[in-house]
Amino acid sequence: MLNDFHLHTNFSGDCDVKPEVQIEKALSLGMKRICITDHHDYDVVSDCDFELDLPSYFSAMERLREQYKDRIRIEIGIELGLQEHIKGYLQKVSEEYPFDFIIGSSHFIDGMDPYFPAFFETRSERESYERFFQVSLERIRIMDCFDSYGHLDYVVRYGPNQNREYRAEDYLQYIDPILKTLIEKGKGLECNTGGFRYRLGHPNPCEEILCRYHHLGGELVTIGSDAHSPDYVGYEFERTAKLLEACGFRYYAVYHQRKPEFLPL
């Protein structure tokens, strides 16, 4: 079983599952290593509290790492919500805490999360997707506080028509520079199986983007379920391994102390 490097627990504002439950599920699947990556979206307006109590979170993860050290290797991670105006703050967080792995994600665009329908109310679906990719590119170009970029086409999960009218090639003016910038900076690209959970029939990003990343010379692919419940830990990982192999990948990356290690698919 592939190792899951995108997991949430009740430290995230949108999850009520204790870390031990997620860990035990990973153990039952035969995983040897996981990374818990709870949300830290700083300075946003939302119904959920997405700001982590960082000292408490890190201390709890260290205790769990010690508690399970003879059964599974627990890496301590975080999912940072990227925003340009808090660039300095996010860089400080990435330097002050000895995380093993940091996912950088775009959740809030122009102060709104695409999870909520309001994001799509003032523009067409295509314009909304375009805006999401445009802002993502701007953030990736100026930020270095992360190791792998999370669910690149996250916005598609929540579009009025999801991916029924979505073609990655329509957005290559943003997607290609995103992928090239990640490669130039030595950043990974996450293959997030949450897209299967949302019945897209594809991970986030979709196969076309993953194949494009490989074609451009990208090698650092990380794999995560984005599970907020134990039912989705390792979700569709066997299918994902075959998908990545079809794109040309033979290995995926896991991280320890912010450095990648390559494991066979």
Mind explaining what this structure looks like?
The chain has eight helices and eight strands. The mean pLDDT is 96. The strands form two sheets. Strands 1-2-3-4-5-6 form a six-stranded parallel beta sheet. A two-stranded antiparallel sheet has the order 7-8. Strand 2, helix 3 and strand 3 (101-105) form a beta-alpha-beta unit. Helices cover 34% and strands 17% of the residues. The longest helix is centred in the middle third of the chain and has 18 residues, at 125-142. It has helices at 19-28, 54-67, 87-96, 125-142, 172-185, 194-197, 207-215, 237-246; strands at residues 33-40, 73-81, 101-105, 148-149, 188-192, 221-224, 251-256, 259-264. The chain has 265 residues and is an alpha/beta fold. It is globular and about 50 Å long. The chain starts with 18 loop residues before the first helix and ends with a strand.
Major sheet size, sense and barrel closure = 6 strands, parallel
Kindly report how far apart the N and C termini lie.
9 Å
The unreliable regions are none
Strand proportion, as a percent range, falls in 15-25%
